[in-house]
Design a protein that fits this description.
Layout lengths: L4 E5 L4 E2 H14 L2 E5 L8 E8 L7 E9 L14 E4 L4 H5 L3 H12 L4 E4 L3 H6 L7 E2 L6 H6 L3 E2 L8 E3 L2 E4 L5 H12 L6
Parallel strand pairs: 1-3, 1-6, 2-4, 6-7, 7-11, 8-9
Antiparallel strand pairs: 4-5, 10-11
Length: 193
């Protein structure tokens, strides 16, 4: 297995599980994962939010953990990375307003490099105009954005993921097993037991 260099985009009030779990899992497999947030440097922290599904009409939200970034966004040169992962939660609302974030996402899409996004992380993909003609999923509240951006929204179970070429998406953290397994496949990573 070839070790991959991966940019992991997150930010304040990104979903806790959608930040911590894929970041740690990709490191555990042996990949070099750089967790970054615009305007923050390596060693600085973001605060996460815990989104849970408790039977209400939408998810509940509670303050999560502090997550330490291990790289500086300003040092990221997308050409030096093999793949991009985008955490969900509330962070994508404001991250998609950052021109450098949009340019970075466009680089990965134009170069046909693997991109994994979960939940509201798809808002960054729609803002970057890289879902046109693609099949993908997201948290259901993001469906109108996917459709308006020219993507085909796939309504799947919260435990499922959707792959279209090098794009792997999931509706929320309960899909981590399928989402990360599909992303590893796109990366060319195999795990043998």
């Amino acid at each position: 297995m070839a070790k991959k260099k991966i940019v992991f985009l997150t930010g304040d009030y990104a979903e806790d599980y959608e930040t911590m779990v894929p970041f740690q899992m990709l490191q555990m497999i042996g990949h070099d994962v750089h967790a970054v947030c615009p305007d923050k440097a390596a060693g600085e922290k973001i605060v996460t939010a815990i989104h849970d599904f408790e039977g209400d009409q939408t998810y509940s939200e509670k303050r999560g953990h502090l997550f330490v970034l291990n790289a500086s966004f300003s040092d990221v040169n997308p050409a030096e990375y093999d793949a991009l992962v985008i955490a969900g939660g509330r962070a994508p609302e404001y991250l998609r307003l950052n021109r450098k974030v949009i340019d970075m996402v466009k680089h990965f899409a134009a170069a046909n490099k693997p991109i994994a996004a979960v939940c509201h992380g798809i808002q960054i993909l729609t803002a970057a105009d890289v879902v046109r003609g693609k099949k993908l999923t997201a948290y259901p509240a993001v469906e109108p954005e996917v459709t308006m951006a020219g993507g085909t929204y796939e309504a799947v179970n919260v435990y499922e993921a959707v792959t279209d070429g090098n794009l792997v998406t999931a509706p929320a953290w309960p899909a981590h097993p399928q989402w990360m397994a599909a992303f590893l496949k796109v990366l060319g990573t195999t795990v043998t037991l």
